[in-house]
């Protein structure tokens, strides 16, 4: 197993329904892939509970998404998603996701996804909970 495979938060083998008429993964499919990779990363870090909207009076909504596409991916190809919490502000968390194919040292796709913390009932932006902040600080990229 390569380093890319070992360090992946999530992997997927591209199903046919995610391929567009040009024969490669449709760009829009990468967003749910990256959201799943972030969720899996948080689960692997033992953070599912601190991010659970049903357990707290806050939730995280997507605020901003940015993708850079370097090379296409194709049906049946195995992709590896690496997740890194990158920035933490008073109200937002930025994740960086890099998508690799087997045995490739450079990513095919890179994403920046920013979540904003909101109060559940009023959907009003609020400060990130101390428990979440404390859990993420050690994971931030250097």
From TrEMBL:
Entries under Gene3D superfamilies matching the protein: Hotdog Thioesterase
InterPro entries in the record: 4-hydroxybenzoyl-CoA_TE, HotDog_dom_sf, Thioestr_dom
Keywords assigned: Hydrolase
Alphabetical list of CDD domains matching this protein: 4HBT
Keyword Hydrolase on entry: yes
GO MF entry, a single one: fatty acyl-CoA hydrolase activity
Location of the Thioesterase domain: 22-104
UniProt cross-references to SUPFAM superfamilies, sorted A to Z: Thioesterase/thiol ester dehydrase-isomerase (SSF54637)
Family per similarity comment: Belongs to the 4-hydroxybenzoyl-CoA thioesterase family.
Protein name: Putative thioesterase
Species in which this protein is naturally found: Gynuella sunshinyii YC6258
């Amino acid at each position: 197993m390569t380093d890319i495979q070992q360090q992946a938060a999530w992997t997927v083998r591209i199903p046919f329904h995610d391929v567009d008429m040009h024969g490669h993964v449709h760009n829009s499919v990468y967003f749910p892939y990256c959201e799943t990779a972030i969720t899996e990363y948080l689960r692997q870090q033992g953070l599912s509970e601190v991010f659970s909207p049903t357990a707290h009076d806050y939730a995280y909504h997507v605020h901003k998404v940015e993708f850079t596409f370097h090379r296409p991916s194709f049906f049946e190809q195995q992709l590896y998603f690496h997740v890194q919490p990158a920035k933490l502000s008073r109200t937002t968390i930025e994740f960086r996701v890099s998508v690799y194919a087997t045995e490739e040292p450079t990513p095919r796709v890179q994403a920046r996804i920013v979540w904003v913390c909101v109060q559940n009932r009023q959907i009003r932006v609020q400060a990130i909970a101390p428990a979440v902040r404390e859990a993420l600080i050690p994971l931030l990229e250097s």
